[in-house]
Amino acid sequence: MSLLSHIDRRVLVTGGGSGIGLTIAQAFEEAGARVHVSDVDASALRTISDHPTISSTTADVTSSEQVASMFDDVTKNLGGLDVLVNNAGTAGPHGPVETLGHEEWRRTVSVNLESQFLCARLAIPLLRASGGGSIINMSSTAGQHGYPMRSPYAAAKWGVIGFTKTLAMELGPADIRVNAICPGSVTGDRIERVISAAAEDANVDPGVIRDRWIGQTSLRTFVDPEDLAGLILFITSDAGSKISGQALAVDGHTEGLGV
Questions:
Q1: d(CA 252, CA 213)
Q2: Confidence (pTM)
Q3: Among 4, 131, 208, 258, which residue carries the largest CB count within 10 Å?
């Protein structure tokens, strides 16, 4: 048995037009899966035009109507579903709670947590019809530690873990496994924007923030998107068939989050 046997599996990756999501989608494609991605940014989806086995939908996954339309496309293009990767997310605002606006709090929680509910509830009937499958919910090490100045993001990511463990209990009898991935700081444009915001608030050079965050990990490193894709392929493969209800950190061992 191949550890990463994904031939004939049908996979949906939200937030799949760029960054981590695109890397995950491409890894599944390379493993032989048929993949559908969604992204709120239609221009980002143009990057997959040279991947004939990846179809796509432009969708805001905080909208129940757009999520329903996305699943219509999934059914049409894939004929069913074996794996859902709830990857869509946003960094949210940076600052102390008393300075945050209600709308930016609500938007951060909606994108990072509510969207996973909206996608899961439509994916579950398809996974049941397939005889089982996997749901991967993207959390964060911010869902395992306190995270000063990032309260809406941390609150949502803690919620993702609770949602994951509850779904795993509900869906286990149907042979549907549910796990959360908890990345640390992931290389790419998004973390650079977060670092810049934190540096501006602290009135220091971005390099100071970057070095501080790297120093909060035992391995003194950031994570690459490929590290996350590799773990997701493993736990959705036959080799990961007994892994469910877990919050799996890929973070170089985060020792604690600071400002």
A1: 11
A2: 0.90
A3: 4
Is 257 inside any structural domain?
no
pLDDT, position 197: 78
Residues in the chain: 259
Closest by CA to 216, choosing from 155, 144, 156, is: 144
Identify the segments of the chain with pLDDT beneath 50.
Answer: 1-3, 6
Q: Is residue 246 part of a domain?
A: yes
Residues 6+ apart with CB under 8 A from 84: 11, 12, 119, 120, 123, 127, 133, 134, 135, 136
Total number of domains in the chain? 2
Residues 137 and 79 in one domain: yes
Active-site pick, 28, 153, 158, 213: 153
For this structure, is 153 an active site residue?
Answer: yes
- Domain of 111 in residue numbering reads as 10-186+224-250
Does 236 share its domain with 215? no
254 in Cβ contact with 157 (< 8 Å): no
Asked whether 214 and 220 are in contact (CB, 8 A), the reply is yes
DSSP 111: I
**What gap in Å lies between CA 186 and CA 176, rounded to an integer?**
28
How many angstroms separate the CA atoms of 70 and 81, rounded? 13
Please name the amino acid found at residue 56.
S
- Nearest residue to 134 (alpha-carbon basis) of 98, 182, 86, 95: 86
- Per the DSSP assignment, residues forming a β-bridge with 248 are 181
Residue whose pair of structure tokens reads 């046997």 in the numeric block: 5
Whether 136 is in a domain gets the answer yes
Both 228 and 218 in one domain: the answer is no
Report the distance separating Cα 92 and Cα 152, nearest Å. Answer: 7
